[in-house]
Write a structure and sequence with these properties.
Strand order of the largest sheet: 1-2-9-4-7
Shape: elongated
Distance between the termini: 40 Å
Largest sheet: 5 strands, antiparallel
Structural class: alpha+beta
Helix content: 40-55%
CATH superfamily of the largest domain: Jelly Rolls
CATH architecture of the largest domain: Sandwich
Number of helices: 8
Length: 242
């Protein structure tokens, strides 16, 4: 679905937005925040709606006020996989902005999401007025590189079963609910194919990992619902070496 069908909405003020507390805009003072508040455009995206497309020119930076967004890459054969998830307070499109290049991935709303768009002219103005903002984005890119290196290390040192358990622990923070009896229920926002892409393996390998977790009575998968009877057992699984 095209991003032009997203619903325009009055986004939270940049002075009070919860996302600001963890974003690159933290260094901005009152006057700069006022300018940013005037420059941004807020939209509400429904699940499945595109925020931007891979290969399109970078027109600016997106800031997630609320919700979860899937960052997808599509190969020359049209196969699309999720490479990471982005949540409230995170920014999207900044690497394409700094590179002066088209977006190298696309972004779709996984849940209903409120997202602000700041065009590149306004972004440059903010950085010129406050170089600490540019430094914050550079630190973000450095963390991205560290995360990519850690993911490669996990792919070689941890089994697919352990990586899947670790991903479930991450997803429980936003998609998990605890029943009265202490059972954890996670409503997965991802397909099996996307789970495989996120941990860097094949869908059939994930299927085997799912069966292994079920046989060990660590987790029970029913469609996109995962029931975890014992959280400690899942945490133990996440540490198992390859």
């Amino acid at each position: 679905m095209d991003e032009r069908y997203a619903t325009s909405t009055r986004a939270a003020s940049c002075f009070h937005c919860d996302a600001r507390g963890t974003s690159e805009w933290c260094p901005l003072e009152a006057e700069d925040l006022r300018l940013l508040n005037q420059a941004k455009v807020g939209n509400t995206y429904q699940p499945g709606q595109s925020v931007f497309y891979q290969g399109n020119p970078c027109l600016g930076i997106y800031c997630i006020e609320s919700g979860t967004v899937a960052v997808r890459k599509t190969d020359p054969h049209g196969n699309s996989v999720i490479v990471r998830l982005a949540h409230s307070g995170e920014t999207l499109g900044y690497r394409a902005f700094f590179a002066g290049a088209p977006y190298r991935a696309g972004a779709d709303a996984l849940t209903q999401a409120r997202i602000c768009f700041i065009d590149k002219t306004a972004v440059r103005t903010m950085m010129d007025r406050n170089p600490a903002v540019a430094q914050a984005f550079l630190r973000h890119m450095a963390r991205d590189l560290e995360d990519a290196e850690e993911a490669r290390l996990k792919a070689t040192s941890l089994s697919a079963r352990a990586q899947l358990a670790g991903l479930l622990l991450v997803l429980k923070q936003r998609f998990g609910t605890m029943a009265r009896d202490g059972t954890l229920i996670i409503e997965l926002p991802l397909s099996r194919q996307d789970l495989a892409a996120v941990i860097g393996t094949r869908p059939e390998t994930v299927a085997r990992a799912v069966r292994a977790l079920e046989q060990a009575k660590v987790a029970q998968f029913n469609g996109r619902s995962v029931v975890i009877p014992d959280l400690d057992a899942l945490m133990d699984e996440a540490d198992l070496p390859a």
